[in-house]
Amino acid sequence: MKTRFITLLAAFAALIGSVSCTNNSGKDEIIYYSFATVNKNGANDNSKLTYITDDARLLIPDSPAPAAFKAREGQRVVLYFSIQKEEEELTQTTQIKLYQIDTNVVIGNTAIVSGSEALADLGVEGVSVNTSPYTPQTTPKYFNIYVGFNANKHEKHDFTLALNTQDTGDEKELKLTLAHKSNGDVSSLDYWQWVSFPVEPFLDRLEGKSRAAINVKTRMNGNQVFYLATPNSGSKCIQVK
Fold it and tell me: Across-strand partners of 146?
């Protein structure tokens, strides 16, 4: 809902403010965010939580997550954190200072269809795509897009990233479509969430391409196109700026 979107923006602004802070060694403290998967390590509470990024890095927080965070094994989240080492760079196993956990992340559907009618069957209802501060991005496993849509029961909505085999783009880019189906949930309420779309179904067709062109029917500005890098771009722990 709109209230949640405003709260997240406020939290994000607070994190940006902390970029100028210094750590105990007197160095500037850099804030990152990264998509990750929860690993409970056999515990029933949050005492042993660690997080695995999409490029298989292990993030170990310096203190347990708040008890209010009802973590699920394998849950997808967005973490905001700084690095707790002198070199201040990500390694395969990294100790972090955790600032925020965003749990509003869902895994979307993917489809490969033939023809515009089959594509339309996946949904033609408009969405908004936030490009700042929540920049659409590619990780080794997912295309990640922060979308806004009208919803009363957001869990009823389906999001699909689809390839139309009759219109695949050109030699430089793969053309994909972000489809949205509300399944009868009509509302004037504004809701925002991350949607992560698996890249695996498109890997063969992305080979040799420089980017994916994501076609979107927006809520207010007609059809728009934005671009995402291919999944071979390495680590995607992003500095907050």
Answer: 194
**Residue 24 has which token pair?**
């105990």
Q: What is the pLDDT of residue 232?
A: 73
β-bridge partners, 93: 58
Which of 35-39, 141-145, 236-240 shows the lowest per-residue confidence on average (mean pLDDT)?
A: 236-240
| Secondary structure (DSSP) of 79-145 | EEEEE-STT-S--SEEEEEEEEEE--EEE-EEEEESSHHHHHTT----BEE--SSS--EE-SSEEEE
What is residue 86's predicted lDDT score, i.e. its pLDDT? 57
Residues 6+ apart with CB under 8 A from 155: none
pLDDT digits (tens, 9 = 90+) for 111-126: 999 999 999 999 999 9
Q: Rounded to a whole number, what is the distance in angstroms from the first to the last CA of the chain? A: 25
Long-range contacts made by residues 59-68, C-beta under 8 angstroms, separation at least 24? Answer: 59/34, 59/94, 59/96, 60/93, 60/94, 60/95, 60/96, 61/96, 61/97, 61/98, 62/95, 62/96, 62/97, 62/98, 63/98, 65/98, 65/101
pLDDT of residue 68: 84
Would the pLDDT of 50 be above 60?
Answer: yes
